[in-house]
Amino acid sequence: xxxxxxxxxxxxxxxxxxxxxxLQRLGIASVAVYHPEDRNAPHVAxxxxxxALRAKVPSGAYLDRDQxxxxxxxxxxxxxxxxxxxxxxxxxxxxxxxAAGLAFIGPGASVIRLMGDKIRSRExxxxxxxxxAPSVTEDEAGQDFLARAAAIGFxxxxxxxxxxxxxxxxxxxxxxELAENAALAxxxxxxxxxxxxxxxxxxxxxxxxxxVQVMGDGAGTVVHFYERECSLQRRYxxxxxxxxxxxxxxxxxxxxxxxxxxxxxxxxxxxxxTVEFIxxxxxxxxxxxxxxxxxxxxxxxxxxxxxxxxxEQIRIAAxxxxxxxxxxxxxxxxxxxxxxxxxxxxxxxxxATGRIDxxxxxxGDGIRFDGGILVRQAVTPAFDSMLAKLIAHGATRAEAVQRxxxxxVQTALLGVPTNLDYLLRIVRHPAFRAGRLHTGFLTQxxxxxxxxxxxxxxxxxxxxxxxxxxxxxxxxxxxIPEPHASIGLWRN
Length: 492
Fold this sequence. Notes:
Elements: E1 6-9, H1 13-26, E2 29-34, H2 42-46, E3 49-52, H3 58-61, H4 65-75, E4 79-81, H5 91-99, E5 103-104, H6 109-116, H7 118-127, E6 135-137, H8 138-141, H9 145-152, E7 156-160, E8 170-172, H10 178-193, E9 198-202, E10 208-217, E11 222-234, E12 237-243, H11 250-266, E13 270-279, E14 285-291, H12 298-305, H13 309-317, E15 334-341, E16 343-344, E17 350-351, E18 354-355, E19 358-360, E20 367-371, E21 378-379, E22 386-394, H14 397-410, E23 412-414, H15 420-428, H16 430-433, H17 441-444, H18 446-449, H19 457-468, H20 471-478, H21 484-487
Parallel strand pairs: 1-2, 1-4, 2-3, 4-5
Antiparallel strand pairs: 6-9, 7-8, 7-9, 10-11, 10-13, 11-12, 12-15, 13-14, 15-22, 16-17, 18-21, 19-23, 20-22
């Protein structure tokens, strides 16, 4: 099988490390790029070669398409894997990569543009029989936008066409709130995305967020790798994901996965993508958006299917096509992922900074840790707050939950505030264990998920145990330096 001789990974942190590991396994030479602030980062050490990128701010280095393409030319890399975030869904970058004679390990620029526009993608989905929530856009309604939006019925959700991450998104429960919230959404859309277009759609109360992993060969053939449950979110950002979705009837699963494949096939989709849906309590589901890249939560799909999705991406980009038919893709057991973030859940998930002084990772059957962090590494505001991902797989969902709980207890990360304790409280919550999930879960059970008093005996005991369990800490705290260690029991 002829793939690539050398691939550049245009990213950092845990996703860069994750892609680099697959390249190593496939015997493909690798190139990392980095801002000088990241010169000691794990992804730099893991790659065969590393190229420094100049930028005034660290994140700017990973957004500089000209420097990244120049790094490919300088090292002889034939392809670029963008990971997620940064340039992964930038159509201009994908176009520039291919114009330079390189392979972009992702979909083509035209599909990225189509699916990156929420209005166009919704229209495309509806035209191909994929359910969309009742909605109206400013483009089609003009001066009648507010009236036609109100006619859909309340509550409404107003969104930015080019939006994401909750920016430009407003919930409207009465007609009296409509005009003001539409103006705010329009303003935020222009400010954050340079595109002021908005649309309104019916709000599904307490929906589930279900997404389907797809792969296409770019010639109309698409397969799915089943669905993921991504309903547990804070500030519109996912925090716990799992595969398969719990308590989802088989017929409904088939319908949702079929809709995702239909949409991707209609777009002649190439490489990896994720079609996202909202699912109401009434069993009706609606297209939300399509992410034209590998998702943060892809490990849970890998755990239950046994398929390396990054390898699949590389195969397709190298012209090898899909490695499996739909009939050859199945699901075994259940997998759950927690995103470990440098943040303070009890302060509205405020991002945190500091230095990692202790890192003790869990082990055991079915446990996977995807990270790109080291002891003594500084955690700064320069990048996203996510540090790593902890994944547990089991023969059943109950076993996966049990293994995840044990792994969270075993994980020690000191020196910077994290959400580890918060994640543990989620996993221990009865509603989570029962699989009763929806996007308002964290709000509904906020009181249950609140931290115990800061100086409770349990909290202090946990900190002491974590510290004493680390040899480096014990040596620093209790070790006797020379020459005093050689003197023995002598004392003055």
